[in-house]
Design goal:
mainly alpha
Length: 168
């Protein structure tokens, strides 16, 4: 069994990883903001740099969503002693909502759906790609809000970021 200190450290390391993804997602969103909403014609005429930005956007969205769902959520539940017998992911989401770590468990499937949409590559379908990116921008903003809220929650409950003085 992990000690409270170990859980706080592991949660902090996961926050550090999520911080990197979040910062890079925020950066690339600022870089591409002027391109949205993206028409099919605009999608077909993206410069190589803009294509790289779109790739960075989708990659960071996916990495942040994965890190939060697969690692941060369980660590936060451990941190506050709420992991218990939560066997399904929806049980974990509902518990996180109940304890105030996230605002709305029902929005998480939308983030997963977007991650799945990014995972499928259809280079010949500009309309689908433009539509996916247009749907992703507001979801990315929401994902970042969810992350910042759960980050603040975890820090209030003792998560320790790497390199922080722990008083010990």
């Amino acid at each position: 069994m992990s000690s409270g200190r170990q859980i706080a450290d592991v949660t902090g390391r996961t926050l550090w990883i999520c911080d990197r993804h979040a910062l890079r997602l925020e950066w690339v969103m600022a870089e591409v903001e002027s391109l949205f909403p993206l028409s099919v014609n605009a999608f077909d005429n993206l410069t190589p740099t803009e294509v790289a930005y779109m790739d960075q956007f989708s990659t960071r969205f996916c990495k942040l969503q994965d890190a939060i769902g697969a690692k941060l959520f369980p660590h936060v539940l451990d941190l506050v002693g709420e992991q218990g017998a939560l066997n399904t992911f929806i049980d974990k989401l509902n518990r996180l909502e109940k304890i105030g770590a996230i605002d709305n468990a029902a929005q998480w499937p939308l983030f997963r759906e977007m991650r799945n949409a990014f995972a499928h590559d259809y280079p010949e379908d500009s309309e689908l790609n433009a539509e996916t990116l247009n749907r992703a921008v507001p979801l990315a903003s929401e994902l970042l809000k969810v992350y910042h809220n759960i980050r603040d929650f975890a820090l209030r409950y003792g998560a320790v970021l790497p390199g922080e003085c722990n008083g010990g």
